[in-house]
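Re: the request from the purification team.
They wanted to know what the chain is likely to look like in 3D before they choose a buffer screen. I agreed to run a prediction and write the result into the notebook, where they can find it.
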Amino acid sequence: MRRSHALYTPSLLKGVQFSVIWGLVWPQMLMLLCTIVINLTDTWVSGRISANVQAAVGLSFQVQLFLMIFAGAMGAGGMASVSQSIGAGRWGRARNFCSLVLAGCVVLALVLSCLVFIFSSGILALLQTPDELKDSAGYMVRVMLLGLPFFYVMQVGGTLFKAARQVVAPLIIMVLSCLVNFFGDLCFGLGCLGFPDFGMAGIIWSTVVANAVSGILTIAVLRRADLLPGRIIPDMRWIRRAAPFLARVALPACCNGMMWQTGYLVLYALVAGLPEGVAALAGLTAGNRIESILYMPANAFMVTASILVGNYLGAGDKNSARRTGLALFFISGVSMSLIAGMMWPFISDLAAFFSQEQAVQKQIGYYLFFNVLVVPFTVSGLVLHGVMNGAGATVYSLLVNVIGIWGIRLPLGWYLAYNVYHGAYGVYMAMFVSMAVQTSVITWIFFRWNWASFAIHAGGMHENSSS
C-alpha cells in the first residue's frame, strides 16, 4: 500500500466550496429524515401492538438490511464510476454506468428474493429467533421480499441521482414513499381514521406498497433526467472494459457490507440468546432507530464526500479531493457532537416514548447511553468512509470494518454479555469500543495512505454510439 506524505494543515481548507457542500447536504438530510420517519413509524406502531410484534419488525428489518448489502455494493460502484465520469466531463460514460448498475441491481434483487424465500425458516433459525416470534417474523420476511426489487431500484437509483449532483428528484420520491408508509402504518396498522386494523400485516404491506411506488417513479425520473442511455444495456465491448473498475469497487464494498451486516445479525443472535430475550431485542430495535436520528446529517455528509471526492478525482484534482474530505470530517464531527450533547438529557424520555414496557425501556436506555457517547467517533468516521467510496478505495473500508466488528465488537460483546454483565449491557459497551477503534484506523488511512490512487482509469471506456 503506497503512502501519501502530504501535509494536512488548516490552510488546506482554503478553497473548499462550502456552499456546494451545503447544497448537496440539505436535500440528503431531508431524504434521511424520511427514512428515519419510516423506520421510527414502523417501530412506534409495532410497539403499540406488542413487544413480540416490535421484535418481529426488528428481525425482519435486519434481514432486509442484510439483503441491502448487495444493493449497497452496486451503489458504491455506481457512485464512484458516475461521479468520477461526470467530474471528467464524460456524460455518455456516466449514462452507461447508470444503466449497467441499475440493470444489475434488478436482476440481483430477483435472485436474492427467491433464495431468501426458500430458506427463510433456516435464516430465522440462524438468528436464534425465539419460538414465539418465528411465525410473525417469517411472515414479515416473506412479504418484505415482494417489494425488494423495487426497494433496490429506489435505493440504487437514488445513489445514481446523487452521483450526478441531482439531489432534489430523489428527495421528492423519498417524501412520497414516507407519506405512503406513514399513513399506511397508522391507517392499516392501528386502524386510525376509520380504516380496518390489520395490525402487523398492515405495517409490512404499507412498506411494500411504498417501495413499489418509489421504485417505478425512480426509473421514470432517471429517464426524464437523461441519466439513462437510449439502450437499456450498453454494448458488450464497453461492458468488458468497464467491468474491472466496477468489480474493483463493488466487490470490496459487498464484502464490507457483508461483514457489517452479518456482524449485526450475530449481534442480534447474541442478544436473543440472553435471559432477557425479547425485551433486549425490542430495546435493540428501538434504540437503533432512535440512534439513526443522530446519523441523519452524518450520512448526508458521507454521501456528499463521495460525490465531491469522486468529481475532483475524475477531474484529476487530488488536492481539492483531500481538502473537501478534511473539511467534511471536521464539520460533521463538531456539529453532530453538539447535537448528541443536546440529546443526552432526554434518553429516558425517548425510551418511554418508544415502549410502554419497563424492561424494554431499560434496554433502550443502555443502548443509547453508549451509542450517543460514541457519536464524535462514529460520524467523523462515516465521512472518511464516504471519501474512500468516492475514490473507489472501498478495500480500505473493508479492512477497517473487519478489524472493528469481527476483531473487536463481536468477541468482546460475547465476553462482556455472557461472562461479565450477563446481559445486553455488555454488547452495547463493545459497540462503543469497536467504533472508537474503527474511526481511529480510518483516520490514519486518510492522512497517511494514498487512497486517491484508486480513481477510475479512463482508457478504453469511451461512450458508445448509443449514448
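For the purification team: The mean pLDDT is 83.
Please add any questions underneath this entry.
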